[in-house]
Design goal:
This protein has about 130 residues and is mainly β. It contains 2 helices and 11 strands. Strands 2, 4, 5, 6, 9, 10 and 11 form a 7-stranded mixed sheet that branches. A 4-stranded antiparallel sheet has the order 1-3-8-7, with no helix packed on it.
């Protein structure tokens, strides 16, 4: 079955770190753009990061720049999001999505997962990240 499998969410204290993973199952990430979104229930989603497999270029939203790092392990077809210096406002459900490289071109201007849906083929099931003391 072709799918994205997410892992790594959970509860962390402010200032702490978490590492989210998004593994491709049944395919690989060749020539894909892989993005991370987050959503607080009742709010619009936010595209926080994206990486293009072909050339490794990355995107970060202003809200996470300098704290989050996206990376790709081609051998295991896994994209990771290292989240450091976490804040309570980072609390959300996090999703990964994979599509064409154009996903990483569009995410800066469109950001919202619903608006970008036409550019991705798969989305993970989502996992909760809670930053709280």
């Amino acid at each position: 079955e072709v799918q994205l499998v997410e892992s790594g969410g959970g509860l962390v204290q402010p200032g702490g770190s978490l590492r989210l993973s998004c593994a491709a199952s049944g395919f690989n990430f060749n020539d894909y753009g892989i993005a991370w979104f987050r959503q607080v229930p009742g709010n619009d989603s936010e595209g926080v990061s994206c990486i293009a497999e072909s050339d490794g270029r990355t995107y970060y939203s202003d809200s996470v720049k300098g704290r989050f790092t996206i990376s790709i392990d081609k051998a295991s077809a896994t994209v990771s999001l290292q989240m450091n210096s976490l804040k309570p406002e980072d609390t959300a459900v996090y999703y990964c999505a994979a599509g064409g490289v154009i996903l990483c071109d569009k995410i800066e201007t469109l950001s919202d997962m619903d608006l970008l849906q036409r550019y991705f083929e798969l989305r993970g099931q989502g996992m909760l990240v809670t930053v709280s003391s």
